[in-house]
Amino acid sequence: MPTHSSTLAGWREWVQITDIGIPWIKAKLDTGAQTSSLHAHHTRLFQRDGVDWVRFTVRPWQRSTADEVVVEAPVHDRRRVRSSSGHVEVRFVVMMRLTLVGHEVDAEVTLTNRDQMGFRMLVGRQALQKGFDVTSSRSFLGAKAPRIARRRNRGEPVPSLPE
Fold first, then answer.
1. Model confidence over 25-65: pLDDT tens digits?
2. Burial of 79 (0-12, 13-18, 19+ CB in 10 A)
3. Contacts of residue 31, Cβ cutoff 8 Å, sequence gap at least 6
4. For a designed S-S bond to 155, which of 37, 63, 81, 106 qualifies (C-beta 3.0 to 4.6 A apart)?
5. What is the pTM of this model?
6. Is 161 left (phi over 0), alpha (psi -120 to 50) or beta?
7. Nearest to 140 by CA among 102, 96, 98
8. Looking at residues 84-96, what average pLDDT do you find?
């Protein structure tokens, strides 16, 4: 039993990244991954005031381009990451504030194409070590995305999400 105060989270949770305009995204919590990862398209490096920044598009839903958001963020780092299939790629790392099971945490997030993965986001140990215990036998212990968001994630046609 942990001696510290921690929040119980399921192996999959709805995450909010409101700083970049993503009210809901379904994520897998992965204690085997060091860094979190986010599905990103059209990733482009650029300079702003002599600092490396990256522009990318986030598509929060599995089978849809609806509600996609274009994001610009300073590059925190570049990392060689080995995927679960064994492929190594260099990824941009950006800092993001995530809301997970009602708690906000700052997380290092790598940007990659997760089209072939079951989840648009993966939350790794670096973020989970900030006060979360993950149980593999439960799911969605935190806030539940509104029905319209859950339907959108399944690829069902629904009206736009409210701002």
1. 999 999 999 999 999 999 999 999 999 999 999 999 887 78
2. middle
3. 124, 125, 128, 134
4. 63
5. 0.89
6. beta
7. 102
8. 90
Return the structure tokens found at 3.
Answer: 């001696």
Q: For residue 1, give Cα distances in angstroms to 103, 118, 135, 149, 156.
A: 21, 31, 13, 35, 42
Measure the CA–CA gap between 61 and 14, rounded to whole angstroms: 12
Give me the residues paired with residue 16 across strands: 99
CA distance 54 to 45: 4
Q: Which residues contact 136 (CB under 8 A, 6 or more apart)?
A: 11
Residue 18, classed as helix, strand or coil, is helix
